[in-house]
Structure formats: structure tokens, C-alpha cells
Amino acid sequence: MDSEGGGSGGGGGGGAVKDLATPSKFVAAFFLGGLVLGASLLAVQVGISLPPSLQLPPPLWGGRRRRRRRPVRVYMDGCFDMMHYGHCNALRQARALGDELVVGVVSDDEITANKGPPVTPLHERMIMVAAVKWVDEVIPDAPYAITEEFMNKLFNKYNIDYIIHGDDPCLLPDGTDAYALAKKAGRYKQIKRTEGVSSTDIVGRMLLCVRERSTGDSHNHSSLQRQFSHGHGQKVDDGGSASGTRISHFLPTSRRIVQFSNGKGPGPDARIIYIDGAFDLFHAGHVEILRKARELGDFLLVGIHTDQTVSATRGAHRPIMNLHERSLSVLACRYVDEVIIGAPWEVSKDMITTFNISLVVHGTIAENMDFLKKRNEKKEASERKYYEGKTYMSGD
Ligand code: CTP
């Protein structure tokens, strides 16, 4: 009964253990192994080739050392305007196609000529791309189309093996393919575009929110908020414009979160830093505060507030990006080790103990402005007192 049960899971393994347990078979197996090893060594010495069944794996004892493989370098370019988790996912997939990822960030002028002016300028787009944990090098002012001259520069100066782009068509104003030359050279690879998010979508969401804020339509907003948060793919009429604005239809899966995670906890003596916030429309300012926070310790834990908390503290028209979208953008940042998806507004004693937090940090621009109001009132009162006691003012 037992042996049958064992045999079904790993028949070969169970059988081998049993066979070798019999002394005579063990000796035979040992002898045969020695014979094969001897024959192989002899073959290596006299330079004959062994039949495949008798070939050994590469020597482990210091034979001629194999030449180290050159890292495969891949190149992805893009505008990366209003950087979102779709861009991060593209960079993640591109990096997985090689060992080193070089990213070309298209110049403001080139974007203007090909798609219209970007919302974020080149230096901000550079900060955003460089902050993504899968990026190894960034090239500024990349051209929109891969010209012959630029392609040769990529191959010869940057040692690029493959040029990568999402599976959406990337056409120039004259209708031709921006990657035609790379495809012809056989050095083009494609990744899957992330559904449900684009810079245009985000601008649309922002416009919708501005419109709602100006009309004070908080009832409509809460339904809009629900659609953002739950990822319905409806089109919402944008009040007269023919296009309509597509609401996020991003469906967060556990696999996507795992793909974006570092998968490593803090070491036993790590100094854990905690910072929380909305991190809505993740931008260069967020990157900077996360970089500074990370410098204060060994492990950066970021608490992302729920959509409800953000609405309650920032106004009904926020957040623009839902909790899961915001979490992915933060997780993609190289300075972040882990996130709490839906952190409480208040950092409780319990949280500090549970996560072993050493230091809680906050930027100088606080979300809760009450303490600033109190501080300013105090300051004004003390200044008033000071000037009241003075009979004249010195200097100019
Ligand atoms: N990309 C993606 N998924 C998205 C958006 C972009 O995989 N949802 C990929 C693009 O295919 C490209 C790279 O990210 O390989 C950079 O994209 P970018 O040049 O910024 O252009 P767009 O595709 O226009 O991005 P968006 O529509 O968001 O502006």
C-alpha cells in the first residue's frame, strides 16, 4: 500500500532509492558510474567525441573556463508622458527580454511634431523613467522614429541587441511605421500593451473631475468614483464632446501585483521607514520624497490611502487613479520595498509594532493642514505681541 502510494508521486525516484539500497545493485551502479566517468575523462584527454548518452556536463573542477556571456541589452523608447503603471509594465516586460534595459525618452520637440505637446517636460519624464526599478540606463532626447543613423548608434555605441515596443501600432504622421527599420534588421521585439490605461485616458479623467468640481455634482462623482475604483469599462458622456471619456477598466490581479513586487521582506536588523499618502497621479515630486525617505533607512514601506480616505481628505473629485493603480505606480519605484494597499489615515501604535517601523516620515507639505493653521495662528499672536511692545521700528 505504502510503496504503491510512493510510486505514484515520484515512481522513478522511489524505485531508484529502493534499488540502490540492495548492496549488490549499489555496487553495480557505482561501478557503472565510475566506468562512464573514466570513459568520459579519457575522451576529453584524447579529443574524441562521446555518444550523447555518455556525455558529461561541463567540468566543475576547473577545466578550460567558459567565456562569460555578454549581457543582452534591450532598448525601449517612448514619450512616457504622465507616466502611469502601463508604462511601468511595458518597461518590466522589456527588461524581461534581456539583461539590461536602456530607455530612450523622446524629446519635447519630437513629441510635439508627432503627437502634439506633452503634458510633462523632458526633465520630469526622465526622472520618472529613471525611477522605475527595471531601468538600467536612460538616454535623453531620443528621436520619435528609429532612423538608420540612430539605429546604428544604438547597435554600435550602446551595444543594443533588440529594440522593443508595445503591440500597438506606432505610426508617423505620414502613416509609416516608426519601427520599420528595426523590424527589417530583425532586431525588433514586441511586448503586450497594458489595457485600460493611457495618458489620454488620464487627461480625460482629470477633465471629468474638473467639470464635476465646477458643477459641484458630488452625487455624480460618487458614481464616477465607484467606476474608477471598480474598473468598469463604460464610456461616460463628457457633456457634449463627441469623444466621451473612457473610465479605467483595469482589473487588478494578484499576478500583476506579484510581478511588480520585490518579493523580499526586511532583514532582521533593518531600519524600516514608513511614509504614507495618496500618491495619486504619481509624479517627480513623489519620486523625490520616496528617494529621500529611503535614504533614512534600509527598507521603505509605503502606505497607500484608500480611495475613500483620499476623497474625504482631498475632495470628492479625487483620487484620479484608483487604489490599485496608485499602488502599482508606487511599487514600480526603485526606492520602494513594500506597500500597504489601503493604509489607514492614522499611523497607529499597532501598525508600528506589527511592521516594526523605526521611523515615520512625512513631506513638508502636509495633507492635514490643521497643524499649519494652528502654527500660523501662534506665530501671528507672538508677532503681534512683539510689535505692540515696540515704540519705534529701527532701520528701513
Ligand atoms: N505602453 C504600454 N501600455 C500602455 C501605454 C504604453 O505598453 N497602456 C507602452 C508603449 O507601447 C510603448 C511604451 O509604453 O512601448 C511607451 O509608450 P509612449 O511612447 O509613452 O506612448 P503611448 O503608447 O502613446 O502611451 P500613452 O498612450 O499612455 O500616452
Descriptive labels:
396 residues, alpha/beta, Rossmann fold, five-stranded parallel β-sheet, four-stranded parallel β-sheet, binds cytidine-5'-triphosphate
Descriptive overview:
Its EC number is 2.7.7.14. The longest helix is centred in the first third of the chain and has 24 residues, at 23-46. This protein is α/β, with parallel strands linked by helices. β6 (235-236) and β7 form a beta hairpin. The N and C termini lie far apart (102 Å). The chain has 15 helices and 11 strands. The chain is globular and about 80 Å long. It has a 5-stranded parallel β-sheet with strand order 3-2-1-4-5. The chain has a 4-stranded parallel β-sheet with strand order 10-9-8-11. Among the domains are: 73-191, 3-Layer(aba) Sandwich (Rossmann fold), CATH 3.40.50.620; 254-364, HUPs (Rossmann fold), CATH 3.40.50.620. 45% of the residues lie in helices and 14% in strands. The protein binds cytidine-5'-triphosphate (CTP).
